[in-house]
Design brief:
335 residues; single chain; 6-stranded mixed β-sheet; alpha/beta
Length: 335
């Protein structure tokens, strides 16, 4: 029985060429003749030989893996199973695996300021994609001063040191609130946790729209968790204690918006007849909810592509600028 071809040296012996020639032929570098490359590839296929990606990574000093990190400094009760995280992780997994990288996922509760530095020092991945800056922008900025292969999904703030890809959250918040004002809403509630920079920008956009209305509408701000098991009770408490129920709601996420619709309905107040509701994200559930949810769309798939492209350039030692994506108001039945 013929010896099994396990390494490029086995294949080189079988083909009667050097291991370097085999390596070049399988890599398609064009440094060997077409006939030799075809013969080596045919032998590799015949014997089921696949070059080791681990060995290749050692040669080029790469790990072949990208760390995807979710820091939850402001929202510790949130889980990776959150629909937004799952949507983004799915898009990132598609992008990374198509480029030959593994995805290493971490959910971090940042109790210490050196949490990111420890992950960088461990040197287990080629770079990091951070999903959401949470309240950790200063930590990201500090790491970016000396560590290049890192990109964050989230808001852009002038002067930040780290590279980010994300939606124009201020514009998104403004669009959502202007829509409610145009629908005749005068008493608008904002549900969200403004400790996170993205949500803070959405709230600032809502405030700008209220200011532009010159007294036609007012805004009440209710700090609200993203996690459904917490925000339902917070919204219910607000509704039970409010002297006047809002006729419009801008929620910082689709999840919060759907919790709000349920809380209102439990009190005999229904969207869009009695209250008009706008969310943020445009997750799949926004299209299938009853009523279908008006929301501000973030193009998560395009964002994932930009995140990966920026990061891989940085892995190669190239600097990239931040990317700000345009939001889009998607009007459905809830408003």
């Amino acid at each position: 029985m013929a010896n099994k071809v396990r390494t490029i040296y086995d294949l080189a012996s079988l083909a009667g060429v050097s291991a370097a020639t085999v390596s070049r032929a399988l890599a398609g570098k064009g440094m060997v003749s077409a006939a030799t490359e075809e013969r080596i590839r045919a032998l590799a296929d015949k014997h089921g030989f696949r070059p080791s990606s681990f060995a290749r990574n050692l040669r080029i000093k790469r790990r072949g893996a990208i760390g995807v990190v979710i820091p939850l400094g402001h929202e510790r009760a949130q889980h990776i199973s959150d629909p937004f995280f799952m949507t983004m992780i799915g898009c990132l997994a598609d992008e990374l695996t198509e480029r030959g990288f593994e995805l290493v996922l971490s959910r971090v509760i940042p109790d210490r300021e050196d949490w990111l530095e420890e992950m960088i020092a461990a040197d287990r991945v080629d770079g990091f994609i951070i999903i959401g800056q949470s309240d950790q922008s200063a930590i990201l900025d500090a790491a970016a001063q000396h560590y290049l292969p890192m990109v964050a999904w989230g808001a852009f703030a002038p002067g930040q040191a780290h590279c980010s890809v994300g939606t124009d959250n201020f514009l998104g918040g403004r669009l959502a609130t202007l829509h409610l004002i145009e629908r005749g809403c005068k008493n608008i509630a904002f549900f969200g946790n403004a400790k996170a920079i993205e949500i803070r920008h959405r709230l600032e956009g809502a405030r700008a729209a209220i200011a532009d209305s010159k007294g036609a509408a007012n805004l009440v701000e209710i700090p609200t968790h993203l996690a459904a098991e917490l925000n339902s009770a917070e919204i219910a408490q607000f509704l039970d204690e409010a002297e006047q129920l809002p006729d419009g709601v801008f929620a910082a996420s689709d999840m919060i918006a759907l919790s709000a619709i349920q809380a209102f309905a439990a009190r005999g107040v229904h969207a869009p007849r009695d209250v008009k509701v706008v969310g943020f994200d445009d997750l799949a559930m926004a299209r299938t909810s009853m009523p279908a949810l008006t929301t501000v769309r973030q193009d998560v798939a395009a964002g994932a592509t930009q995140l990966v492209e920026c990061l891989l350039k940085r892995v190669e030692g190239k600097r990239t600028g931040s990317v700000v994506l345009d939001p889009e108001l998607i009007v459905r039945a809830s408003s």
